Amino acid sequence: MEEQTKYYDSLIAAYFSGEASPEEIKQLSEWLVLKPSNLELFEDYRKAWMLSGKDAIDSKVNVDLEWESINSRIENSAKPSLTLLPVKGKGRKIKLLLNWKAAAALVVLLVAASALFYLATGSKNIVVTADSGNLEQMLPDGSEVTLHQGSTIEYPADFSSKTREIKLDGEAYFNVKHDAKHPFIVSGEDIRIEVLGTSFNVNTKAGNDKISVVLTSGKISLYFEDRKSDHAVLNPGMEAEISISSKSIVTGDNPDPNYMAWKTGKITFDNTNLNQVVNTLSKVFQKEIRLADQQLAGCSLTATFEHQSLTQILNVICATLDMEITEENGLIFVKGTSCN
């Protein structure tokens, strides 16, 4: 018995540190509802993690009050069940849109990495937002998604329907687990991106009422919700530019070697004109960067940056092209003389 308790002690610790496997999370979920003492042990760990991450907690959340309310729901449930979600990454805020049923059980966990998890049964959607930096999230089917800062995804806690559907607002990179019987669908506005198993990048805020999709591996189909038969297909290395207003999809080879720079941290410029350089940096670092004079567009840059800050990159540009950087009202300007 003592050995079993030690095992679950380790399992709970692994869960809170984000190191538990999907199978271990399932075991822990089943063990928690076997008897009240198991849940009490879990609560002790929750409090310990809460204290270790207290400074990072969203001040708008009264965790103790939430826990008391939720714990009473668990105790009053005839046959409570619990589904734990994977803990992975840092700096996230997760909320559930809940549609309660009579026997639903809910547990709130507060993790040291300032993460708020609502764990429950019943009909619900999970909303994940990358509030402070990029964020990696594992989905219920084992697929992985990396969110660019400021982006949000919404998905069901359990892919129990015929399709695995995800809503995206912003930019994300998907690595989808293959499942021929359950197509994976990403929606942004009324566009649909359907796959079985593949890797691709989607940006629903590409600018000028556009959505961009770049395929890394596999194959994907794109269509508007009300025009499923009129679809476009992408092969690896291809890009789609989608206009929401005109409901058009234009496909071709991906011309941007830095489309994944926001995720990989690697930016490469090969005799790239300065207009494209500042556009790329604006996308990667989500800062508005402009040329003070369009004559500077004739300048070009050849350089590679890996995991360097925007300030470091701009300093290199200044030193290389004899320019200077100024900031006015939140805008960054590149100033200098024409290279012609």
Kindly describe this structure:
The chain is an alpha+beta fold. The protein has three domains: 1-129, no CATH class; 141-254, Jelly Rolls (Sandwich); 261-335, Phage tail protein beta-alpha-beta fold (3-Layer(bab) Sandwich). It is 25% helix and 37% strand. The chain contains seven helices and 22 strands. The protein has helices spanning 2-16, 22-32, 36-52, 63-76, 261-264, 274-285, 310-321; strands at residues 93-99, 106-111, 115-120, 123-129, 135-138, 144-147, 152-156, 164-169, 171-175, 184-188, 191-195, 199-207, 210-217, 220-224, 232-234, 238-243, 248-253, 266-273, 289-291, 300-306, 324-328, 331-335. The strands form five sheets. Strands 1-4-7-8-10-11-14-15 form an eight-stranded mixed beta sheet, with no helix packed on it. A seven-stranded antiparallel beta sheet has the order 5-6-9-12-13-16-17, with no helix packed on it. Strand 5 (135-138) and strand 6 form a beta hairpin. Helix 1 (2-16) packs across helix 2 (22-32) and helix 1 (2-16) packs parallel to helix 3 (36-52). The longest helix has 17 residues, at 36-52. It is globular, with a radius of gyration of 24 Å. It starts with a helix and ends in a 5-residue tail after the last strand. Mean pLDDT is 76; it is low at 52-63, 73-83 and 85-123.
